[in-house]
Design brief:
single chain; alpha+beta; YojJ-like (1; seven-stranded mixed sheet; 11 helices; 7 strands; elongated
Length: about 280
């Protein structure tokens, strides 16, 4: 108890507003990290690391200094270095996504007309494939190039159209298996092999995932791509981003994921596409 009183007495020597600002800044950083990692394996790992660090600091300050355990203090410093090295290795996918997000938009750069046209072509194809319960996985490339995965598939380099996407994933065709990758307004490759995530994700309540959903999570854990998955069994449409899987989404929700838009912006994109279609096909 005396050690705790002495600790708070030392803290009390600082100006209260300085301590308050420091605590708020630390809280904001921790909140942002937890929010960024929410729903991923990194969230549980981060909580464990924070617990070890907090417990270690308390032990070091309240026990080691009190009783003069110099050897324990020396070992703890080595333990902190080991935790730092392990954390960097364990959080590699999350660190990569953070660096990718800094100063980068969520969707490939391009004109509003190109963005609207490409998004609506994808949405139409997904809606029709879902209605037919045709399994599909469409990867929309972000700022991180997916060239290493494109090389595993069949190169196409064709303009994104509803008809093309439906043809690619039509059962029995040579390209229907595995994934198609879209870059800007082009389908750059089909029948692409993607890395698989774990078969069961605790974040999804222990739901056992199929190969398409595992592939969608696998590619988004190391890139900023947006992946659309259509279940062959149920026709349910899911979206994977940043290692998270959102199941059973609607057309409007899909539009927001593709454009990175708010409700208002997504509505504008939809109207822009419809006006473009009318101009192309006048009455």
């Amino acid at each position: 108890m005396e050690t705790l009183i002495e600790y708070f007495r030392r803290v009390g020597r600082y100006d209260w507003w300085v301590v308050s600002i420091e605590l708020v800044l630390i809280g904001l950083v921790v909140y942002w990290i937890v929010d960024f990692l929410e729903g991923t394996r990194g969230e549980r790992l981060f909580r464990g690391v924070i617990f070890l660090l907090v417990a270690g600091v308390l032990i070091l300050n309240l026990v080691v200094e009190k009783f003069g355990f110099e050897r324990l203090q020396y070992l703890y410093k080595g333990f902190l270095i080991a935790v730092l090295i392990i954390a960097v290795a364990a959080f590699q996918p999350e660190i990569r996504r953070v660096l990718m997000r800094i100063g980068q938009p969520r969707f490939s750069a391009g004109s509003s007309h190109q963005l609207a046209r490409t998004a609506e072509e994808i949405i139409t194809a997904v809606t029709e494939l879902s209605a037919m319960r045709t399994g599909a996985i469409v990867v929309v490339e972000g700022q991180v190039a997916l060239g290493e995965f494109v090389e595993t598939g069949v190169r196409l380099d064709a303009k994104v159209t509803t008809e093309l996407l439906k043809t690619i994933f039509h059962p029995g065709t040579a390209l229907h298996d595995m994934a198609a990758i879209i870059r800007a307004d082009r389908v750059v490759a089909a029948r692409v092999q993607l890395p698989l995530a774990e078969a069961e994700m605790p974040e999804l309540g222990g739901i056992k995932l199929g190969s398409r959903h595992r592939a969608a999570l696998g590619i988004t854990m190391g890139s900023d791509a947006t992946v659309i998955v259509i279940s062959e069994e149920t026709g349910i449409v899911s979206v994977a981003q940043a290692g998270k899987l959102i199941r059973n989404i609607s057309e409007s929700e899909l539009r927001k994921y593709l454009t990175g838009a708010t409700d208002k912006t997504a509505t504008i994109v939809e109207r822009l596409w419809k006006s473009t279609k009318k101009s192309e096909h006048p009455a």
